[in-house]
Specification:
The structure is a homodimer of 198-residue chains.
Chain A (H helix, E strand, L loop, with lengths): L4 H11 L6 H12 L3 H17 L1 E2 L6 E2 L13 E8 L2 H10 L4 E5 L17 H10 L4 E4 L5 H14 L5 E4 L15 H9 L5
Parallel strand pairs in A: 3-4, 3-5, 5-6
Antiparallel strand pairs in A: 1-2
GO molecular function, one term (chains A, B): DNA binding
InterPro entries (chains A, B): DNA_Rcmb_RecR, Hlx-hairpin-Hlx_DNA-bd_motif, Rcmb_RecR, Rcmb_RecR_Znf, TOPRIM_dom, TOPRIM_RecR
Keywords (chains A, B): DNA damage, DNA recombination, DNA repair, Metal-binding, Zinc, Zinc-finger
Chain lengths: 198, 198
């Protein structure tokens, strides 16, 4: 309305992003106006590239620009362990830790009957296919520690029980660097239950 | 590092924007991944357009896609009043009010000896040229109500005094909808000083 058309269109685009309202969108759009041309060109190209060049790995479901992804094709990784996560961002969180060298399987969601999401709607059938072909010894069920994540883990664990596969779940307890005072009761009760001997 | 290249480049681009740190940039980049293709194309194009098609109006200094801008060429506006503001965003704020129908002059800054910004570094010479040519009766000095803005207003006001031009300054006082309790002392003292009779 009061803006020249190119800037009002950019404001609209920024407003489509999560957590960005009209004021922030306006501030960002005006900031772009004063950015270096090459930075804006990079930004514009990256947006298109992310949308056009990225896909999900046909093996594990992680986002990738080559298929299969760099994790699935990495010969140095341990193919006998698969870590099952809900989201591609979880893979990145795990990789940042630099301690896990097994494979991944991304579910792209969790079972949630309330939202009408069943086992067939997430990447579980592909996981079962993988278990048939690959020589897997352990399945780490690293779904989120909430109701949906827990029930998804439980569901998968029961599903693979007949195959005799070892399934594990990430430990519950106090976060490192956290404050006991601020821990919720459920976390605290888990921390007591799974206390370790020194 | 752990991200496919296109997404890590997009994260870098988002991080160049003000107020966006690594976590938010990651969240936004992953959000883009799931956006509708046409929205991403629009976003990407708008970025380029803002940078390539927008310029400053050669008359008033406001951002525009046509030169002179739509305000300077609007025949229905009152050409005898010029409102002097620091920033293009101030023009937009004034326009949103829908009560001012005069012209604008954008300084793109304020005099600030501390930062080495003198009268020649901001859009003041162009203002003086305009005053020579155009039939202006009043100059509203709407620079920001802080030290730099006040001294810029004072400077311009003294500069145009010999021409016998009427210069005015926006009123100080309590913001509408504000709380007296939270008003700072300077604002309150201005509000008392310029109190109006009912």
């Amino acid at each position: 309305m009061h803006y020249p058309e190119p800037i009002s269109k950019l404001i609209d685009s920024f407003m489509k992003l999560p957590g960005i309202g009209p004021k922030t969108a306006q501030r960002l759009a005006f900031y772009v106006l004063n950015m270096k041309e090459e930075d804006v060109v990079d930004f514009s190209r990256s947006l298109m590239k992310v949308k056009r060049e990225l896909q999900f790995c046909s093996v594990c479901g992680h986002i990738t620009d080559v298929d299969p992804c760099y994790i699935c094709t990495d010969k140095s990784r341990d193919r006998s362990i698969i870590c099952v996560v809900q989201d591609t961002k979880d893979v990145i969180a795990m990789e940042k830790m630099r301690e896990y060298s097994g494979m991944y399987h991304v579910l792209h969601g969790a079972i949630s009957p309330m939202d009408g999401i069943g086992p067939e709607d997430i990447n579980i059938p592909a996981l079962l296919e993988r278990l048939k072909d690959e020589n897997v010894k352990e399945l780490i069920l690293a779904t989120n520690p909430n109701i949906e994540g827990e029930s998804t883990a439980m569901y998968i664990s029961r599903l693979v029980k007949p195959i005799g596969l070892k399934t594990t779940r990430l430990a519950h307890g106090l976060p490192v660097g956290g404050d006991l005072e601020y821990a919720d009761e459920v976390t605290l009760s888990k921390a007591i239950e799974y206390r370790t001997e020194l």
